[in-house]
Amino acid sequence: MTKDGTISDARIQSTSGYIEVDNKLIELILKTTGAWVPAKNSEGEHVDQELVVTFGNMGC
Q1: Which partner for 21 in 6, 16, 37, 53 could form a disulfide, CB atoms 3.0-4.6 Å apart?
Q2: Nearest Cα to 2, choosing from 37, 30, 27?
Q3: What range defines the domain where residue 36 resides?
Q4: How far apart are the C-alpha atoms of 60 and 28, rounded to whole Å?
Q5: Does residue 48 carry a pLDDT above 90?
Q6: H-helix or E-strand containing 40?
Q7: What's the total number of domains in the chain?
Q8: Among 44, 56, 46, 51, which residue's Cα sits nearest to residue 7?
């Protein structure tokens, strides 16, 4: 996420094994634009942030 709250460089780190599912997850994340509040550093300035979203039953 960029310092202005937009999604940048959304990508799949590990595939689900189903290209349709992978593509839909990216599509859904990109549709959330405007719903994100950017991170701030210790001076209160907005900064870029990496956000990792996990989907599935890992650890179950």
Answers
A1: 16
A2: 37
A3: 1-60
A4: 24
A5: yes
A6: strand 39-40
A7: 1
A8: 51
